[in-house]
Write a structure and sequence with these properties.
The chain is an alpha/beta fold. 44% of the residues lie in helices and 13% in strands. The structure holds 4'-deoxy-4'-aminopyridoxal-5'-phosphate and glutamic acid.
Amino acid sequence: MSGFISKRAAGIEPSVTLSLNTRANALKEAGEDVVGLAAGEPDFETPEVIKEAGIRAIREGKTRYTPAAGIKPLREAVAAEYSELLGIDYQWKNVVISHGAKHSIFNALYALTDPGDEVMFVTPYWVSYPEMAKLVGAVPRIVETGADTGYKMTVEMLKEEITKGKPKVLLFNSPNNPAGIVYTKEELTAIGNVLLEEGIALISDEIYEFLTFDGVEHHSPVKLLPALKDQAVVVTGVSKSYAMTGWRIGFALAEEQLAYRMGAYQAHATGCPNAISQAAAVVAVKSGAADRDRMRDEFEKRKKMFGERLAAIPGISFPEPGGAFYFLVDVSALYPACGVSGSSEFCEKLLKERGLLVIPGGPFGLDNMIRFSFAAAEETLTMALDRFESFVSDYS
Ligand code: PMP
Ligand code: GLU
């Protein structure tokens, strides 16, 4: 290892979701018989009307720097859309456009924490949360959950955690990656009230807000408790809802001073988000609802098919996802027969023996589980299930 690498950089690991996704694609390109359910991204094309807006932006020469916090038409469109959705009066200055929801979370963590502050989040958490907290010099504080609470943090658990020391920020995600957990109105209200009483800031990662299934509803804590608005950053964006992962546009909604600081940080760290993608995102936010709903309906059908077949496989269990596009499945009962000691070894064996690539649960905080993404064509999902069933039957 180079002696020049900082301790801070040496403590950061690559994103397992992105690297395994790259690995699945490379194996396929090399002609290997591999089915990959690694990607946490819609397999749909970006809707035509949005693509056209991007092409138009290039033709019209919208290819220069924009204000660091984003173009005003997009900030206004996001403010209008979320004022209506969340019942809160957001103005354009409350909105910071970034290079993706991931980047918005990073900006928010930077603006809310000083080195040594604690950032609390809940297992199973998205892989990037611990690393992002470390990158800003904060300390991850993990609340462990399990099947007994449906992999949710109850308000009692939160209160108990706070008695051990108060975190600066709760980084919260519903609908959740990697398990599709969706918190109810009552659960969120109870948690939000504790944050208000204790003065703990909230980053509410709502990137899967439009992707809920079977009548399950997404609720935003700031809609339930408008008083939270001044201590909360709502993070979302176009990646998942409008099949725009590669365009790299995210949104943060926050109190004006906080939004100003996030914009100031971004101005020096990365500069403006991609100008062409911003022009396309205006169209997504204003005119993308029908396409968004069409893709959601398709995900719901796939989820049903996938869930029914998984449920019929003996020796495994999983929480029923209410949203996002993942199943997080407990496969630990198979570990002894497979001769593996954790989720990474299990996934390696599955890849080697059946050519099926899924994501280990370890980097999400649950080493007894593995994550399947159902954001793939039905025939891919069917092939994946055939391979998984036959693998499980070998070791049951
Ligand atoms: N939060 C969660 C929970 C996610 O799964 C993702 C997926 N990439 C992101 C944030 C980041 O989204 P984006 O691609 O817009 O950066
Ligand atoms: N968030 C997606 C996932 O969990 C995409 C990859 C990433 O950005 O980490 O698979």
